[in-house]
From TrEMBL:
Entries under Pfam families matching the protein: Sedlin_N
Species assigned in the record: Macrolepiota fuliginosa MF-IS2
GO annotation, cellular component aspect: cytoplasm
Gene3D superfamilies assigned: 3.30.450.70
Record GO biological process: endoplasmic reticulum to Golgi vesicle-mediated transport
Identification of the protein by name: Transport protein particle complex subunit
Length: 178
């Protein structure tokens, strides 16, 4: 199971991103789009649907043999899902006065959870399983590391976070909670 974290500045520019592959088992249901595609289909549309469904290891059978689909497209699909959820996050922020917004959106098997800081920095996590307590604890630890990074006099406020200490803390927290 994989998790994708995006931290966006108040102007929605990417500040940090992380892909974490968890070793914890989770029951996954087959993707509805990928399940409806015939295995013999060779059309480009079938490949697009398979890639958009989030099936990263899908194989398309052609006359020249099996071809893997989705390898390079997965990162773009994940970014598209995260960006598409920004409007939903903004709507929920207007209605609720909470920092942890839980599950705000869903695209096939991907669930989007969000956390918004008082400074309007958005933490977006795409995940496949349900783990509300773990995700909340993960967001709190990432926020703590983010605040410590912001307090660093050598960090330029809105720039991309390139700190190996910050990255290590986020990865450790992901291993612990996700």
């Amino acid at each position: 199971m994989s998790h994708h974290l995006f931290i966006l500045s108040p102007s929605d520019t990417p500040v940090y991103s992380l892909t974490h592959h968890s070793t914890k088992p989770v029951a996954t249901a087959p993707s509805p789009l990928a399940a409806n595609l015939p295995t013999w289909s060779t059309s480009a549309f079938a490949g697009t649907l398979t890639a958009l469904s989030g099936a990263s290891g899908a194989t398309q059978h052609t006359s020249s043999g099996p071809v893997r689909i989705g390898g390079g497209q997965d990162r773009h699909v994940i970014q598209m899902i995260a960006n598409a959820s920004l409007d939903v996050i903004e709507d929920i922020m207007r209605k609720e006065n909470a920092m942890y917004l839980r599950s705000v959106d869903k695209f096939n098997e991907w669930t989007v959870s969000a956390f918004v800081t008082p400074g309007n920095v958005k933490f977006i996590l795409l995940h496949e399983g349900k783990n509300d307590d773990g995700i909340r604890a993960f967001f709190m630890e990432v926020w703590e590391a983010f605040v410590k990074t912001q307090l660093n006099p050598f960090y330029s406020g809105q720039g991309v976070i390139r700190s190996s200490v910050f990255d290590g803390r986020v990865r450790t927290s992901a291993k612990k909670h996700l």
